[in-house]
Inverse folding.
């Protein structure tokens, strides 16, 4: 047998040394972190697929709520301040109901006829319908001082110089449907006689209601009706009135507070100017620039009684 080194078989190593021992542990797999089940919020993402953090949104929400609270607090302070100011000044204590009587005869001061409507008589309409919100009728007005001054002058001098014109039943019912502030349900201080009168008011007819006693049909309601009728029913007739100086003199005998000396500083500059100076012919028609709107309306009612 050939015993040369080339023919000798290598000595076999034990199995452990040949690398066939126990399998090595998978160190990569065992080193992975433990999987945590996903929660519902983990599925919420924005449009870009980025998970949303609710903290900034909550912060903005709290900021907005704080601003609203400050604004509301400021508004409450402002309303309180205005309330105190009105309470301390009788000059400002004019209700929308009272102002409405003035506006029917002085339509140039209506909200619909002024250029800047912001903060001006907000209880009144400003387009088409010129009426008053009945639920705000007894709240104090918001208006410039010069308009309130005009109201007080009118109220003191000529409000009660009303000419008694007809009040047809059917037209009066139409008036109540429009000017709801004069319905008893919107007039907490309405006289009891007026409340009963409205309850028993016939639904149809042309009876003249001006013969009713003032306990049933108060002066305020008569004046409101007359102003509403002047504005909506008789506007064209009023505008066509062209009184002469002699006719105006007759009117002033029974309505002296329409004279020039009361109005020359707060009405049109030429208000009854020539009549006051005496430089006129009795049968001469008074020029347009000498007649204010409230005078024209009053003269028309005087002629219509």
């Amino acid at each position: 047998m050939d015993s040369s080194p080339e023919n000798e078989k290598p000595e076999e190593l034990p199995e452990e040394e040949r690398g066939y021992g126990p399998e090595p542990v998978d160190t990569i797999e065992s080193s992975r972190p433990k999987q945590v089940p996903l929660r519902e919020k983990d599925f919420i993402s924005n449009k870009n697929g980025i998970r949303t953090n609710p903290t900034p949104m909550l912060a903005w929400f709290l900021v907005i709520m704080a601003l609203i609270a400050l604004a509301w607090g400021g508004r409450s302070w402002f309303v309180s301040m205005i309330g105190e100011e009105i309470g301390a000044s009788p000059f400002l204590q004019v209700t929308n109901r009272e102002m409405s009587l003035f506006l029917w005869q002085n339509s140039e001061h209506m909200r619909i006829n002024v250029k800047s409507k912001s903060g001006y008589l907000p209880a009144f309409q400003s387009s088409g319908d010129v009426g008053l919100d009945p639920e705000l009728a007894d709240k104090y007005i918001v208006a410039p001082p010069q308009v309130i001054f005009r109201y007080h002058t009118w109220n003191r001098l000529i409000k009660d110089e009303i000419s008694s014109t007809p009040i047809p039943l059917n037209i009066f019912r139409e008036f109540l449907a429009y000017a709801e502030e004069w319905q008893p349900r919107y007039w907490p201080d309405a006289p009891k006689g007026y409340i009963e009168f409205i309850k028993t008011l016939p639904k149809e007819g042309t009876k003249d209601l001006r013969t009713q006693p003032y306990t049933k049909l108060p002066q305020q309601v008569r004046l409101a009706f007359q102003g509403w009728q002047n504005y909506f029913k008789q506007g064209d007739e009023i505008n066509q009135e062209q009184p002469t100086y002699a006719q105006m003199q007759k009117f002033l005998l029974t309505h002296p507070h329409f004279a020039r000396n009361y109005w020359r500083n707060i009405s049109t500059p030429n208000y009854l100017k020539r009549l006051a100076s005496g430089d006129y012919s009795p049968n001469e028609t008074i020029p347009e620039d000498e007649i204010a709107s409230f005078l024209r309306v009053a003269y028309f009612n005087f002629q219509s009684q």
